[in-house]
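Usage

Read records sequentially. Each one opens with the input sequence:
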Amino acid sequence: MRTNGINHLALVCRDMEETVKFYTEVLDMPLVKTVALPDGGQHFFFDCGGGNLLAFFWWENAPEAAPGIASVAHFPSKPMTAHGSMNHVAFTVDEDELEANMQRLKALGVPLLPVVVNHDDSPQGVAEKMHPGVFVRSVYFTDPNGIMLEFAAFTRELGPDDVRHAPAKAKVKARAKVKEGV
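and closes with the structure output:
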């Protein structure tokens, strides 16, 4: 089996009009498809570049957001989310556009971490200054729904040496709950 990339990522918004305004006017993503659902909801698609789409569902009676469970409560102090949740969406951008993008978000009043984050393989996972070990630089911000977003710019190609850690194994208790359907 072979996939050709991600067709779309579907999220849920609290207000479709507010969401359309943010993604089309702040992030300059064209709205390319709208669907009226039989249950009265909506499903809208935005072109986020590279042949990829970001989609949003809206239902009037959808449950409220659950920060710290289904979404990030606060970044960087509380980044953990629940199993099966969507933590954040990262959009690829050119490295030389990171600062300008951050300044535009600030000017538009978008909540953001006001620094470009240099991700590296140090024990802290980040570096204050750029150095050869930095593999991606990021700007983190949130949309009107509280969804954490990221502009990410790889600084180099990733290769076999970047896969250094054994995958962690879930505790037996956690896996048992999944099997029971809890």
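Summary fields computed downstream for this record:
- The first helix runs from residue 16 to 26.
- The beta strands are 8-12, 31-36, 42-49, 52-58, 89-92, 117-119, 126-127, 136-142, 148-154.
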